Amino acid sequence: MAGGKLHDFAADEQNRGPWIPTKYANNPKAGQWTSGKLSHDMIADYKPLVMTDGEGIRCSIYVAGCPFHCVECFNESIWDFQAGHPYTQGLEDKIIRDLSQNVVQGITFLGGEPLLNTGVLLKLSKRIRKEFGHDKDIWCWTGYTWEELMRPGESADKLELLHYVDILVDGRYMKDHHDSLLQFRGSSNQRILDVPASLRAHEETGTSAPVIWPKLHDQHRFIPEVYGKDRSAGEGAAS
User: Fold this and answer.
1) For residue 143, which of 73, 59, 88, 57 has the smallest C-alpha distance?
2) Does the pLDDT at position 238 exceed 50?
3) CA 47, CA 160: separation in Å to the nearest integer?
4) Apex CA 39: angle with CA 45 and CA 53, to 5°?
5) pLDDT of residue 125
6) Cα dihedral sign, 124-119-189-195
7) At what angle do helices 118-132 and 89-99 cross, to 10 degrees?
8) Which of 30, 184, 232, 235: CA 20 to 30 A from 212?
9) Is the pLDDT of residue 27 over 90?
């Protein structure tokens, strides 16, 4: 694992979300990390017409830089905020052209850490809403939990970006909760959240409890005992 020893920088904070703090990632204080301090507006990758990063056919933009440093992170190569290439007007125009195709449902923000690259993603989100309204949805992955994003002291740009997002997959990746059968996420502590509904609940009641995406449908492996016996018998006969 790159990055050395991991730290809980907010040991005195409570109610930061499920399984937080964790020994498998860095755990920030409220407002400790911000796009203004960390981001270099760099893009690690852009992939049009993918089907793995959320519902439907999507365009996916991977921003560079993440200080969570989750153990066994799939994208460890883009933890560096200076990795990749600068965000350009040409790239933005290409994304808009790609999104204009009828088969494309929306865009996904990944990384790296999207909520620490708000200078890029706020600009892009505003243009998407201007060009398409809500005909194209916006998904976002983040290492932050919803509760952390709602806590006093978090930077305002994170909340501003959330107001453009439709679906948020939240929480650090935790290798001891890894489950390959989960829908659109790697470990069971992570959640798929309906952001507009969660924001309404927060604004109306003051609660930080988020609303789970109503289309959540994890797989469950089920192998009937009789199938296992038949398979074993068949393998035995074949040998």
Assistant:
1) 73
2) no
3) 25
4) 35
5) 98
6) negative
7) 40
8) 30
9) yes
